[in-house]
Amino acid sequence: MRASTLTVVTIVALLLLVAAPETAIQTQETNTHRLEEVAEGVYFAVGTGSVFVMSNALVIVNDEDVVVVDSHITPAAARALIASIRTITDKPITTLINSHFHYDHAHGAQAFGDVQIIGHEFTREKLTGDPMNEHTFLTSKARFDRTLGRLEARLANVTDVTERRELETQVEFNRAHVQATQEVTPIPPDVTMSDRLTLFRGDREIQIHFFGRAHTGGDVGIYLPQDKVLFTGDMLLGGISYLGDGYVGEWAQTLQNLKQLDIDLVLPGHGPGFRDLERIDYVQAYYRDLHDGVVRLKAGGATAEEAAVQVDLTHHGDTLGVNQAGANLEAVQRIYALLDGTAE
After folding, report:
1. Which of 41, 106, 286, 310 could bridge 61 with an S-S bond, Cβ 3.0-4.6 Å?
2. Which residues form the signal peptide (predicted)?
3. Number of Cβ atoms within 10 Å of the Cβ of 73
């Protein structure tokens, strides 16, 4: 979203080109989702771009029911996911698992109706607090409002027929999302866990693990031991995650704890699934170096703004594409706040 020359629609389309696991048994595509069967009855759900979903989901079809991990960004996106699930099974959806509390993964929960919702204790704390005033949600909402305003202003002045048609599509897409956001009423988990919880559905075992603080204070991984598949939410992506609510100083150890599992396929909350587990090493190294570098600069008297410019992580260029010095200011400010004891 930092690329000023690309619209939201274009970005979504580009992400979809790579948002498929490296191996799929079969694929079911609907108007809104592509459901990639990565193991028997296990589907990686990725948006196709017609509805703004912003995150991936996991669909587990069991002998008698369906378990879903993450509900997307709005009830409208969640309803589209539910409708897509109905194209592969008519079994009831009984359980929704929150990978973490962030709006783009948890704000569609109300669309699932009377189902059991499972999440970490921290996730419940956040979703029973003031989730509509969390800075991540407010920042995203403001960004979409600005984008819609810019597009509408351009549309009002455009004369070229082709450009006008393209802008009308973009305006419709963004307006639908802005309107969908107004419907959101966050629903917290009604079942919580601290370290581990295991569900048994017929012959299937579904493990929910908390490995430590990372992207938030309550990230969980959903592990299917028979299939060696792990859904990680935003605790582990194929590259660098959003760090603004994170615990960068603890993140590498959390991922080290995750490695105790026998994993064949990682399904992240954004982007494509992957089997190259060296990617875990790459992001671990980045988080360690970012934290250590910022701590040194802070000890030397640098402000967060100065540290964000000065910290040099370009030695991660070959693995993570970090090709210029500096780091995300919000990430550095978060590290400073934790060091100062002004954030939890």
Report:
1. 41
2. none
3. 27
